Amino acid sequence: MIERKFEYFLSLVELGNITKAAQKNYISQPSMTQFMNRFEAQVGAKLFNREMSPITLTKAGEIYLEYARKRIELDKELEDALNELKRSVSGSIRVGIPLQMQSILVHRLFPPFLSLYPHIDISLNDDASPALEKAVLNGHADAALIYAISQNYKKLSYDYLEDESIRVVCSRKHPLLRGRESSAEHPVPVTLEELEGQVFCLMDKNFIVRKIADEFFLRNKFVPRYKISMSSMVGILNTVCSGTGISFIPDYVITSYTKAEELGYMEIQGEEFLMKLFLIYKNDDTLSQAVREFIKFVNSFYES
Q1: Are the beta carbons of 203 and 210 closer than 8 angstroms?
Q2: CA atoms within 13 A on the CB side of 120
Q3: What is the pLDDT of residues 264-294, one digit of tens each?
Q4: Model confidence over 170-187: pLDDT tens digits?
Q5: What SS3 state is found at 159?
Q6: Which of 168, 247, 262, 271 is the most buried (most CB within 10 A)?
């Protein structure tokens, strides 16, 4: 398969715009900017003239573009040869992906997987991450993609895939922003004292994002005066945008939110909120060939 770094690189070359390249690849603008920084550090040369609009390639970038095109051709030849072997694998797999994540992960993973394995059927479980852990543990699901802050069961394998940032968001007109512009990359700093008496709109307690928020409150001995709990992140974002409250929301939800331009961003001094995306499955010999191929595919997808 063509590595994602080449897809991202070619999207930036084609579109000349970080935001548009991020949208094309279903990631956030901050994630695309981070990719550019890591990618240039890995290559060891500046590839993009970011001060230009649209962004252009440096001389090193032009050299790398030629290399990328040749590498993609070779990868395609290898992929075509291996696909004939893979098409013989058949069966069914039960995959868990929380409902809030499906709009992003299903679109990214399943079309390329099914193009390689057209004889494998997939059924989805859309419970929250903690429930999906138990489903895999109890044999009610073969594998699951979940966000977690710890590895809870010894009988499960947890393959780390990537980090996801959680943003502290509010209405762009929230009084604590005091009229200042903010973004995910440039949030407005606030203190715990400023948050006292504020309304917090939070996910229900069975969601990982809520657990992270509660751990933050407990660690800082901070007791929110007002809390509103909901089971929909989009519902929370709509409430926040209407001017009610502050919340903790993952990047992947904000990326697909239709009114993201109405959000303001805060940074609580000394705090960074992250959760990890894992692929989980039983660490025993009962996995079918179809499930094993899915596990290999997902890990390869995130390694590229």
Answers
A1: yes
A2: 23
A3: 999 998 899 999 999 999 988 889 999 999 9
A4: 999 999 999 999 999 999
A5: strand
A6: 247
The secondary structure of 161-200 as a DSSP string is EEEEEEEEEEETT-GGGTT----SSSPEEE-HHHHTT-EE
- Overall size of the chain counted in residues: 304
Alpha helices, DSSP H, located in 87-138: 99-116, 129-137
Helix (H) or strand (E) holding 263, with range, is strand 263-268
Could you give the 3-state DSSP secondary structure of residue 143?
strand
CA distance 13 to 216: 41
Domains of the chain listed by start with CATH number = 4-83 (1.10.10.10), 87-162+276-303 (3.40.190.10), 164-273 (3.40.190.290)
- Residue 1: its pLDDT value, please? 40
Q: Which amino acid is at 236?
A: I
Q: Label residue 252 exposed, middle or buried (CB < 10 Å: 0-12, 13-18, 19+).
A: buried
Token couple for 282:
């039983």
Tell me the per-residue pLDDT of 23-65, one tens digit each, with 9 for 90 and over.
988 888 888 899 889 989 989 999 999 888 899 999 999 999 9
SS3 track for 217-253: HHHCCCCCCEEEEECCHHHHHHHHHCCCCEEEEEHHH
* Contact by Cβ (8 Å): 47, 64: yes
